[in-house]
Amino acid sequence: MMRLPEFQYRGARSLDEATALLAAAPADTMLVAGGTDVLPNMKRRQQVPKILVGLRGVSELRRIRQADGPGGLVLGGGLTLTALVHHADVRGRYAGLWQAAAQVATPHLRNMGTLGGNLCLDTRCTYYDQSHEWRKAINFCMKKDGDICWVATSSPRCLAVSSTDTAPALMALGAQVRLVSAATGSRIVDLDALYNNDGIAYLTRRPDEVLADVTLPASDGWRSTYWKLRRRGSFDFPVLSVAAAARFDGDRVAEARIVLGAVASRPMPAPAAAAALVGRRLDDEAIAEAADLAFGVAKPMDNTDFTLVWRKRVSRAFVTYALRELRGDDMRECRQRIARQTLEQVA
Length: 347
What we know:
The chain has 347 residues and is α+β, with helices and mostly antiparallel strands. 30% of the residues lie in helices and 20% in strands.
């Protein structure tokens, strides 16, 4: 049995208290909400904070409210994924996010895991996500205690992969996040700017900041979807994901975003693929062109389940599935057969 290392736990009751506790010793302190990521990491000695600041008691982080601007929605970073899945506005207006949250892990883990935790999910790797003793036997890796990336031994940076489900969906929807610090107050950044393509320094969030909430823009005219590839139909992290969103003007695409997940150390937008759709109907030719352009963005490494060559190849197919669903095709049988999920059609 892997046991937790010793640490101090301090439960915050407000966002101000949480940021103050974090600011006292940011280098030695980590946040914990659901604990579904940080606690297993601590057991494997991947992360060994001296202090954990608990966010479960911070009620303001668990709220969903209408945004100040027209039509948007603000989601608290402490919302459980279950609460997100069960919320009528999320399900009705932001189908891609609903689909992404519904496919995270299992119901038990969604009951504990939070939106903020999933957005800040640690990057993963076959060589990193092992016990301390296993990693010690191969002489550790660059991400923790070593100086070499076992995925690509000549790489100057860690290639651990981003495995968050909600981030690609939210990026496709044009979301922003609010980061709060006791020292500098609040700052709002596009979700895309929260991530670096680096397996170690994968977040731009500073050590003294709390991800307080996520703001979604108005959904008028937009459709969105999320497709996830994994070996099993539940529990597993994605080895490829595709989030797509489009705003339609009649039967033509006025705006579009396509984001690929689990193919790099951050979610990867495919702007050229999205731009190729603008002003066009979502016919087979437009979809095939966008899928080809998105294929060039996918650069999976040999650091997770399935072979990287196959994961690269099927990225074109998954972009096609996502865009066909945005077009209105009935993809339920395909989703069940390929993605092993039964989810609602995009409204």
